[in-house]
Amino acid sequence: MKEESEKHRKWKQDKVKEIMQIRALNLKQDREIQMLRRENKKKEQINKRKQEEINALQKRSKTTKAKHDAA
């Protein structure tokens, strides 16, 4: 009886340790995913801003060219 009790306690302790390790790994992965999402969002914002600048320059260039051609 005592051996079985000790066996069960050891098994339970191992399972709890395994669960804690899995939770820690999941937490680490979640943090990494959040970090990558933030990075991706920043890059998307930068690209959007750059594209808007390019569009504005192209529009200004067309306007300037049209004025120059008309003159």
What's the end-to-end separation, in Å?
Answer: 104 Å
Backbone shape: rod-shaped
* Helix percentage: over 70%
Beta content comes to under 5%
Helix and strand pattern? H
Helical stretch tally: 1
User: Biggest β-sheet, characterized?
Assistant: none
Radius of gyration: 31 Å
Structural category: mainly alpha
Overall domain count: 1
Task: Give the rounded overall mean pLDDT.
Answer: 94
In total, the number of strands is: 0
Low-confidence stretches: none
Characteristic key phrases:
mainly alpha
What topology emerges from the helices and strands here?
Layout: H1 2-70
In words, what does this structure look like?
The protein is mainly alpha-helical. The protein has one domain. Helices cover 97% and strands 0% of the residues. The protein is built from 1 helix and no strands. It is rod-shaped.
Outline of this structure?
This protein has 71 residues and is mostly helical. The chain has one helix at residues 2-70. The termini are far apart.
